[in-house]
């Protein structure tokens, strides 16, 4: 089996590649993996260090919007796991162009090539943010209307619709996964958990948006990758599957846990103006993935968070060189 993983040098894609090659997922031991990654500010070859010498891995440095390159790379692959994206909401508020180019146009380039070259399965890795902001209770099922609020979320919703259209129109074997907020190792230090951790471990202050009451549902990246893998191997063509972590927390509460883990108090927190269009709550109903794919998150949040804190403590050499890049892009 040959799998093309786009964005395989990023946070989630690299976890998927490491877990696949380590035999922790369902692909057979003779699986071959090609990573296609542009190495944007968020992409990092070091995320693949653990598997760099593996003869089953091929790394291609390139852009998913490059039609000619994608046409060269894709033939011979049985499946695409599409993780490549511009993924940071804040950056989409000040510059949506790259989000539309990569997330929308890039996805269409891959879909067209997948169809032309007879790729068996296309997994579109997406997000709960496509549904907009949830009410205080309840959780979205897969047929909830798409109502994205940020340019990032709108670009992901567009990509999901293009992928599903490719299935309905041309019969491409597409599966869409939508997950909640991920946390874990190798997370670029611009999103809440790694930003706060790297700052607090350096004795620096952290910025908390608005009143901190925005609720997110936390999913360990390894559980997310098991869900992507189950969708790859067992998902039904043309279906959407929710992968929610099941641990809903207001940002303020998560901030408190990170402060405690790093031995700091609330005096380290700057309450900053809220993000524009900040969604109050996301909530996914994952019953379909549980029933059809046999997926359920296995990493207890307290344990996963403690392991993540420990990983950032022990891997300064991974994140210190990224701080300047993270600051420049903010
Ligand atoms: N992190 C989360 O909590 C989360 C939650 C829900 C969904 N997702 C989705 O999961 C996927 C992966 O997210 P992530 O957190 O790993 O993102 P990331 O920003 O860590 O990694 C993205 C990767 O894509 C690569 N890339 C960007 N533009 C590219 C292009 N034009 N061509 C080729 N490669 C390109 C980058 O170099 C990087 O390696 C994304 O599609 C994202 O929308 C993430």
TrEMBL record:
Keywords: Lyase, NAD
Keyword Heme belongs to the record: no
Occurrences of domain NAD(P)-binding (ranges): 4-308
Cofactor(s) the record lists: NAD(+)
SUPFAM superfamilies: NAD(P)-binding Rossmann-fold domains
Enzyme Commission number(s) of this protein: 4.2.1.46
Transmembrane regions: none
InterPro entries the record matches: dTDP_Gluc_deHydtase (IPR005888), NAD(P)-bd_dom (IPR016040), NAD(P)-bd_dom_sf (IPR036291)
Sequence similarity: Belongs to the NAD(P)-dependent epimerase/dehydratase family. dTDP-glucose dehydratase subfamily.
NCBIfam families: dTDP_gluc_dehyt
Name of this chain's protein: dTDP-glucose 4,6-dehydratase
Organism: Streptomyces bambusae
Gene responsible for this protein: rfbB
